[in-house]
């Protein structure tokens, strides 16, 4: 069983896997799901982007965080925490055109809206000190000055965030630009967002919540549907994979190990496409792939499986059914998008991530989060190198680090270059127990108080977060 103590001793790479221990690769069903959760009984919900009010110089949305009753499992109704009453909404934005969101909190808990991966001013970053209290509202301004990327919106209220996200409060935010749109990648209806997460349901369809019971969440949801099927044309699709789980990783395999093309990660497109047969997706991460269903022909069915199933659950994530022909002018070019040169690092920092079994706290440099303490003081436009070490060798716990404001480059893992799937810009890096990674980053444009933290949300809630005050 994968537990908090023995969880996921995987290979060194977190993008395209270099190796996976045989003990974690499961070839078939490892348990029996409830009948209502049998795989491929419901269609995938393809998310339609929300329509903004197009005002002078910006797009405007109103997002109301509130409870809603929706159908997740067939034949039942489930109360979720939602944006505007829906599960997994989608916003599409364009570089150079700002988005303004008025968030109205109709929940009975605080909500601090964070655009994960967003290059945003402090006032709109979703710091816990700026949480919107029940019955209140706040305006968030996203300048959209960064490169095209798949981002997402979630809560950062600290004490409520893990449950809010678990109960459904996660939206995808696609940022496009001229460079990306100029490439012949699949577009329109063939560019599909897949928001992956897990859940635990009671017999009546109720979502059951326990911060520590991550291995008990045996139902996998894709865009809010349990292990759905998706009818596709025999042509190429761009699939944007977003892991909104609290703590679950996915090690994804298509069919019997079919090859697909990895084209992007957290910070947008990779420098070059990477053919692969397996992809690892950790909480908070996004990966983009192109799958050519034209090579299989009408009538073929391909199952996307998670080869990290917990004990007692099915490995199936979803199924693709090739049902029709279609013209396909798309392609994957040999070069996608160069990684920007961040310059030479003038500052080096070290971060040790650990668990304290005596207190139950998860720590960064032996300290739990303190909202009244500033931990580091980076300077704008100064390139830094951060070494991240996971010291949890006793318990085998993986940790990650997500700095707010700007994306980074992974320089190395355990002194070795990162895998090709990590050659682009990232904003979340997972480090296995006893291992280390070095990243290079440079904070630009915005001064103020920002966070860095583990994106295993239970670890974050139990203290694995620090604060940085960025100045000129």
Automatic annotation (TrEMBL):
Keyword check for Heme: no
Signal peptide: 1-18
A Pfam family recorded for this sequence: Cu-oxidase_3
Boundaries of every Plastocyanin-like domain copy: 67-174, 351-469
Keywords annotated in UniProt: Metal-binding, Oxidoreductase, Signal
Alphabetical list of InterPro entries matching this protein: Cu-oxidase-like_N (IPR011707), Cu-oxidase_C (IPR011706), Cu-oxidase_fam (IPR045087), Cu_oxidase_Cu_BS (IPR002355), Cupredoxin (IPR008972), TAT_signal (IPR006311)
Assembly information from the UniProt record: Monomer.
Protein name according to UniProt: Multicopper oxidase CueO
Species assigned in the record: Streptomyces axinellae
């Amino acid at each position: 069983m994968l537990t908090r103590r023995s969880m996921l001793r995987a290979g060194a790479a977190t993008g395209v896997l270099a190796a996976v221990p045989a003990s974690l690769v499961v070839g078939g069903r490892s348990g029996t799901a409830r009948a209502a959760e049998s795989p491929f009984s419901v269609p995938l919900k393809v998310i339609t982007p929300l329509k903004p009010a197009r005002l002078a110089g910006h797009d405007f949305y109103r997002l109301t965080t509130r409870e809603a009753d929706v159908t997740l499992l067939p034949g039942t109704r489930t109360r979720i925490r939602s944006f505007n009453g829906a599960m997994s909404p989608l916003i599409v934005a364009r570089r150079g055109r700002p988005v303004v969101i008025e968030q109205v909190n109709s929940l009975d808990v605080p909500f601090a809206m964070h655009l994960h991966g967003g290059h945003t001013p402090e006032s709109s970053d979703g710091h816990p000190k700026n949480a919107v209290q029940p019955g209140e509202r706040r305006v968030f301004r996203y300048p959209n000055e960064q490169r095209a990327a798949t981002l997402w919106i979630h809560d950062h209220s600290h004490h409520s965030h893990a449950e809010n996200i678990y109960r459904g409060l996660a939206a995808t935010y696609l940022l496009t630009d001229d460079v990306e749109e100029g490439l012949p990648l699949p577009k329109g209806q063939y560019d599909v967002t897949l928001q992956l997460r897990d859940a635990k349901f009671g017999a009546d369809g109720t979502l059951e919540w326990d911060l520590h019971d991550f291995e008990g969440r045996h139902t996998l949801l894709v865009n809010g549907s349990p292990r759905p099927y998706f009818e596709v044309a025999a042509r190429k699709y761009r699939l944007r994979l977003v892991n909104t789980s609290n703590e679950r990783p996915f090690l994804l395999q298509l069919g019997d190990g079919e090859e697909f093309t990895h084209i992007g990660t957290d910070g947008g497109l990779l420098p070059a496409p990477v053919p692969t047969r397996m992809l690892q997706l950790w909480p908070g991460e996004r990966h983009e792939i192109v799958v050519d269903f034209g090579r299989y022909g009408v009538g073929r069915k391909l199952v996307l499986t998670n080869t990290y199933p917990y004990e007692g659950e099915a490995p199936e994530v979803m199924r693709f059914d090739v049902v029709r022909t279609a013209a396909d002018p798309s392609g994957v070019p040999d070069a996608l998008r160069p990684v920007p040169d961040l310059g030479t690092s003038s500052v080096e920092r070290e971060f040790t991530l650990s668990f304290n079994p005596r207190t139950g706290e998860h720590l960064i440099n032996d300290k739990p989060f303190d909202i009244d303490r500033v931990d580091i003081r980076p300077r704008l436009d100064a390139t830094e190198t951060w070494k991240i070490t996971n010291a949890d060798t006793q318990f085998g716990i993986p940790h990650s680090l997500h700095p707010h404001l700007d994306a980074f480059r992974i320089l190395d893992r355990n002194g070795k270059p990162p895998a090709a799937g990590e050659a682009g810009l990232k904003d979340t890096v997972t480090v296995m127990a006893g291992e280390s990674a070095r990243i290079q980053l440079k904070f630009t444009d915005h001064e103020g108080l920002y966070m860095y933290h583990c994106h295993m949300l239970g670890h974050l809630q139990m203290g694995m977060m620090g604060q940085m005050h960025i100045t000129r």
